[in-house]
Amino acid sequence: EVQLVESGGGLVQAGGSLRLSCAASGFGFDDYTIGWFRQAPGKEREGVSCISTSADSTTYADSVKGRFTISSDNANNMLYLQMNSLKPEDTAVYYCAADPQAMDSLYPYEYDYWGQGTQVTVSS
Fold this sequence. Notes:
The protein is mainly β. It has no helices and eleven strands.
């Protein structure tokens, strides 16, 4: 059974940093694309970043390029999102997701497996 558990969210001031973690189990990282998504109140879920370990590629939404960095620890089935220079508009619930066929997609509908989310709040 595929399981994804996020942690690391919290409250931070604008300009600050947070590091999100996602503990994955039930599948091999080498066979999946794993990504971070977020959903703000009243808005649709959107892709933030994803990593395809088999293709050794990463993808970022334009809104986070240069500020966020995705990384993975394949030996321990961990996914991370380092978020720097945070802005109030980054406030959202952040989700970890995985799929064996998503390639480098940031479309949420491409992903079958989801974590429960972790809240990130950036104050101005």
